[in-house]
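Morning!

As promised:
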Amino acid sequence: MNSWPGKLIRVNLTEGSCKVEEIDPKLARDYIGGRGLGTKMFCDEVDPNVDPLSPENKLIFLAGPLTGTGAPASARYMVITKSPLTGTIASSNSGGYFPAELRFAGYNGIIFEGKSKEPVALWINDDSIELKPAKDLWGKPTHITEELIREKIDDPWLAEETRIACIGPAGEKLSRIACIVNDKHRAAGRSGVGAVMGAKKLKAVVVKGSKGIQTADFDGFKKAVRGCMDKLKNGPVTSEGLPTYGTSILVNIINECGILPTNNFQQGMFDKASEISGESIAENILTRNKGCFACSIACARMTKIDDPKFAGQGEGPEYETVELMGADCGIDDLAPITKANYLCNELGMDTISAACTVATAMELYEKGYIPKEEAGMDLSFGNGEALVQLIEEMGWRKGLGKIATDGSYHLAEHYGHPELFMGVKKQEIPAYDPRGVQGMGLTYATSNRGACHVRGYTIANEVLGVHEKLDPLVTEGKAATVKVFQDLTALVDSSGLCLFVTLTPGWGFEEMKALIKGATGFDYTVKEVKDCSERIWNLERVFNMKAGLTKEDDTLPKRLLEEPLTQGGPKGQVCRLEEMLPEYYELRGWDENGVPSDKKLKKLGIA
Amino acid sequence: MEIELKLFMRFKDYLPEGGQKGKAKMTLPSGTTFEKLLHTIGMPVPEDKIIVINGISHKQGAAANGIELKDGDTVAIFPPIAGG
């Protein structure tokens, strides 16, 4: 029997009840799965004006039709909720092994509603679904939580094969940048989804499954997988660049192009970039490479720090983390950066938002806006010990971390200097300065979950020339480029594949259609899957508008719009967002205020 | 004229004599094109690469190959990479 759309588990935490439901095939066809289908379910059940940390907000874990199927990089699931950081729809993606295991247990998703009185964990073992007390786990970091859960399982083999997603102290303490960590090192990172889990007093989800995943058209699916595997094997990025050096390989080239955020986006070049590069990681701290479920790319890096001040081991740092904890904090030493990365995973915080918050804190401190006695440490740019100390304080909500743990928007506001917040819709900007890569500025400004690089990674074309090479400094044509990247990403995020498959030349809607069609049995055409992608993007937009966001939120920090870069190729450049935004709205079928037209919504079947 | 050449990852193998840590100062006849530079260091012209000249990334192929280098230019060449 076909495993898609299949079943999901509805957990009412107020009542302590769990029941199994069928997923509506019509919705599954129109919204694919993962990010799209999860957002549709969420929008149908939750008021857009809900307080994100109230029991009325819901939290949805949803796999895609390709998750766990063995299609290349089919390791991903999505967490959908209303974000306590941005007030927008949140959909955070993670890989590892937990998402596939959920499907092996026979479920494609879980909807959590209400709020438990006491900490609980959801235990799933095939047909057995049970909420168990988790008071003993509350207050524990994620890696210790995993170990304590495994100790509760008598059979050591079963314990080893069990997959866990949980929150750390940051989520429990309702940090607005808290994430949900699975398999110890992978995270549904952005937009504070961990705080929603914490507000519901849900500590962990524990899954063991022994069932197979059936695809609707096995022969068609197998053929599509074979074609895609060939593409991955022949793609230079997915066969060489990422497997050899991981994502941090980008540090040197992004620096060379003058768009490496440095000292809270005050500059775009870092003179010590090579110290924190992928090459430096490989030479100094790498222990082994690691991959997620069914992934031949294996971009993850397992590392170890021997320096007694920062000793530890774990996974990372990835590019975003090493760049933002490194150059953007003025730090050139991998030891404190990597330690801070481990702490984020253990305490359960998004590394991008956490790093940017430290960078903002450092600028506030250097400009005298955070009094020295309040900082409790020397927060000068370049101080690795301060990075580690502040991250730890944020994870436990203590010291300066009491404020900083809610992200840099709240920190900058608190100290009266919102202009030092480098983000969009209250979410921090990742590690590419849009002044030197114009399309990314439009991507950040229009992302439905606040500033984000994985909602339309135009770096692939504007800088790296993956599919075609575009001039990063021109704005002409970028609205169309951003739209295509955003739509394709919405499809990949909904399918259960990792976005990195799209770093393969020639991997687009056609390839996605073939895989999804084989898995689901839905007789999609390329046009139909493109319509699904647009439907997903527009539904997110509609939710945000109902939640009170407007055109005014589609913008960038003043620094990036008005203060030119001072070095390198993009010297003298600002992000010329105003040249791209009106065209983008028009291409989307939205009015001049960025509101989707009735005609557009009707055509997509949303209205 | 003198340029600074920066080579990354496996391309470091093409670093001219005297270069260190992937970087080399090179003295070239004026009017040297990017393609001529590739010939000089022995890097195959058709090989996939990312080209950054003076901080601006260029499309590989005929247009980049024909770029005439100037005194003081910085030329960085990377194998195909992406991620993030």
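Chain B has one domain: 2-78.

Hope this helps with the figure draft.
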